Amino acid sequence: MAKIKKHLLVCGGTSCNALQNEVIASNLKETIREKGLNEEVQVMMTGCFGLCEKGPIVKVLHDNTIYIGVKPEDLKEIVEEHIINGNKVTRLLLDSDPNLKVHSKKQLRIALRNCGFIDPENINEYFACDGYLALGKVLESKDPQKTIDIIKKSGLRGRGGGGFPTGLKWEITSKSQADQKYVVCNADEGDPGAFMDRSILEGDPHSVIEAMAIAGYAIGATKGLVYIRAEYPLAIERLKTAINQSREFGFLGTDIMGSGFDFDIELRYGAGAFVCGEETALIHSMEGNRGEPTFKPPFPSVSGYLGKPTNVNNVETFANIPVIINKGAEWFAAIGTEKSKGTKVFALAGKINNVGLIEVPMGITLREIIYEIGGGIKDGKKFKAVQTGGPSGGCLTEVHLDTPIDYDNLIAAGSMMGSGGMIVMDEDDCMVSIAKYYLDFTVEESCGKCTPCRIGNKRLYEILEKITLGKGTLEDLDKLKNLSHVIKDTSLCGLGQTSPNPVLSTLENFWDEYIEHVTVKKCRSNQCKALMQYIIDPEQCVGCTACARNCPVNAITGERKLAHLINQDICIKCGACMEKCKFNAISIK
Amino acid sequence: MVSIKLSENKINQIKDICKSFNNEKGELINVLHKTQSTLGYLPAEVQEVVARELNTSTAHVYGVVTFYSFFTMIPKGEFPISICMGTACYVRGAEKVLDEFKRELKITVGETTADGKFSLSCLRCVGACGLAPVVMVGDKVYGRVAPDGIKEILNDYK
Questions:
Q1: CATH topology of domain A123-333
Q2: Could you tell me if residue B43 is inside a domain?
Q3: Which of B34, B82, B87 to mutate to test the interface with A (most CBs of A within 10 A)?
Q4: Which residues of chain B form beta strands (DSSP E)?
Q5: What average pLDDT does this structure show over A285-303?
Q6: What is the average pLDDT across A267-280?
Q7: Is residue B1 one of the residues assigned to a domain?
Q8: According to the model, what pLDDT value does residue A1 have?
Q9: Is there a contact between A319 and A200 (Cβ–Cβ < 8 Å)?
Q10: Would the pLDDT of B1 be above 70?
Q11: Which regions of A270-361 does DSSP assign to beta strands (E)?
């Protein structure tokens, strides 16, 4: 067999899947075969490259070339010009997009080290990247406490949002006495707009499996469970494949690598409940019950799944473990800030040029992320806010752009790290509506067990709705603030304790927008329909009837060649007329 | 108690699913996932059978079914349409897309068209934020959907 010399990688993430990357991969294979190159060029699907906006992506591994926005008709040119003749196809190059020039330069990939680099469905490729070496080292040391000490020393903190020191969590669970303990991987990524965990499981499932086995050895557990969202079919499939391969090679099962240590992993599926990201709720859900949280203590590390000590870590936290074992605690601790070590993966989305997955060292500023890695705001609009931490977090504004990002700074700024969703908003976004959007989410997702969360959030939502309908008063703003604090102070679990954050942070940072809504009844971003009117300027209108013909509710009247009029009582403010008008005669008041 | 009017065949299917999970109560959510993917939805009488097989109360099963948004007691359309309402899609106009679907199909969220063809639901983030706003019809993902592109999507299924 001729030796494979060149690899062509096709991004196999969910976003690229929707752009028919499978057609790209199979056509590419076909083209390679036609040219008689199948002996030396291998085509394979990998995990997410993090360039979701620009997909489908093809990467030529030997010279590290990335092609973006590849269409089936481009493939022949790539093969003929680049693979055979050695000339890159410049029009498709990553660098051909000026916004992407610095995209990878400020990034540091630890958790995502293998994503988009190896074939996630082939364990041999994971071996080639030091796969299962860390597990071997840990088992060989015969000293679980030593492993815990390494993780403690590395300074790794939980990447699911809470930021609890991982090593300490392991130590507490290891000291709990029981006949059976469990390691749980929390893959219930519920934040809307966040897809870090999904990408890791799709792109590098073995790193999570290896880390779970390491955690099992460290704390004395023989069983692992992955709690994963049913909405992630591709991640589930890849994880299942990886678990089976790992069993075949003896990295899961009994007497792993002849050490006498037994460990195996099972999957448990979520069924669409945001609150199940909270560890006690997650455990109840795994037991087949409603995912309602319970009071802590007892912490899961003492009494968790089926009443046994259970160590729950997030996907991204696990993905960091093998590298820390291999490269050492000092290496990891040298990256990041004083209290937040290592890197963080963010799902950068919203009104930004380069939507996608990024991994950056802790301590980087929002400005670097948004304007350098993210390539700035879409369509040249003005930056308004960035939301981190999902429904539990808050909005950060221009004044926070130069704050180094770590767990503690984000909390001080009124937001939080969260699991890593980062949504960028521009001048067209109304911050009152954004707060309402998040409260709508919380009301829907509150499990209903405790009163402040169940009823309080509903009241918050109603007040916000009143404001967006132009019926709010100054008094309502005080009510919002007071009620928010009550809910935060009195809710049972993390969901209720953080759900008013979007309200409080927008009140704090965008007070003048709230005031405008309640006093002059104006929404400066023209998002609150009740506060705006579409009007036709009779001077500009030539009576072409385009608006009247396109109005879905027949609210526009007027004779041909004469100025038209919008009946405000019928108008539903859909904006169709303004889009169709070629004479700029329609504006928003 | 709901009187069970399910066909013998369906009852056996449910029983087999429960058995494949050793009739264990703790496997309830896995059982419900499998049952819903086999039968399409989880009406009261199905829950009754599951409860009996797993030796638990129907109230417990009902409590779980209604807690999780993934489970449904109403049959979905032949082509279920889900509009992503994740934050990334929301700020890029998912609400307008949803309004257009409502207008076009004349149903609201959670309903199915009279001919049983389409049903409409919202979901929280499919993780394809780079393509926002995103719509799913069955398993197919449509990215960068604009309100005026909706007729075209529906035409694929008519």
A1: Rossmann fold (3.40.50)
A2: yes
A3: B87
A4: 79-84, 118-123, 135-137, 140-142
A5: 94
A6: 92
A7: no
A8: 41
A9: yes
A10: no
A11: 310-314, 343-350, 356-361
The CATH number assigned to the domain holding B39 equals 1.10.10
pLDDT value for B2? 57
Q: Is residue B63 part of a domain?
A: yes
Give the structural domain span for B31. 8-67
Please give the average per-residue pLDDT across B37-52, as a whole number.
94
Show which of B67, B94, B110 is a domain's final residue.
B67
Which residues in A lie closer than 8 A to residue B87 (C-beta atoms)?
A: 192-193, 349-350, 387, 390, 421, 423, 437
Mean pLDDT, chain A, whole residue set: 92
CATH class (in words) of the domain with range A431-518: mainly alpha
CB of A148 within 8 A of CB of A218? yes
Specify the amino acid at residue A481: K
Report whether pLDDT(A6) > 70: yes
Fold of the domain spanning A6-96:
Glutaredoxin (3.40.30)
Report the alpha-carbon distance of residue B27 to residue B32 in Å, rounded: 9
Phi/psi-derived region of residue A410, left when phi > 0, alpha when psi is between -120 and 50, beta in every other case: alpha
Find the CB nearest A288 among B28, B88, B124.
B28
Residue A82 carries which side chain, given as an amino acid letter?
H
Domain count, chain B: 2
Burial class (CB in 10 A: 0-12, 13-18, 19+), A142: exposed
The DSSP code for A299 is P
Of the candidate ranges A69-83, A215-229, A502-516, the one whose mean pLDDT is the lowest: A69-83
By the 8 A CB rule, do A555 and A572 touch?
yes
Q: Among A32-46, A245-259, B44-58, whose mean pLDDT is lowest?
A: A32-46
Q: Where are the alpha helices (DSSP H) in B40-149?
A: 44-53, 58-67, 87-91, 94-105
Q: Judge if B84 and B125 occupy the same domain.
A: yes
Interface contacts A/B by beta carbons within 8 Å: 136
Q: In this complex, do A198 and B103 lie within 8 Å of one another by their Cβ atoms? A: no
Beta bridge partners of A462: none
Helix axes A233-248, A205-219, angle to 10 degrees: 60
- Domain range summary for chain A, segments of one domain joined by +: 6-96, 123-333, 431-518, 533-588
- Of residues A417 and A253, more confidence is placed in A253
DSSP secondary structure letter of residue A315: H
Domain A533-588 in CATH 3.90.1150.10? The answer is no
| Helices A457-468 and A474-490, packing angle to 10 deg | 160
Interface test with B, best of A278, A290, A501 (most B CBs within 10 A): A290
Give residue A194's pLDDT band: very low, low, confident or very high (50, 70, 90): confident
Q: Average pLDDT in the A261-285 region? A: 94
Q: In the structure encoding, which two tokens stand for residue A302, read together?
A: 């003492």
Given a cut of 70, whether residue A2 has pLDDT beyond it is no
Residue of B nearest to A198 (CA): B127
Judged by CB atoms closer than 8 Å, whether chains meet at A271 and B25 is answered as no
Residue B156 token pair:
């694929």
Per-residue pLDDT at A116? 85
Tokens matching residue A390: 């999902």
Helix%, strand%, coil% for chain B, nearest 5: 50, 10, 40
Q: Report how far residue A35's alpha carbon sits from residue A38's, in angstroms, rounded to the nearest whole number.
A: 8
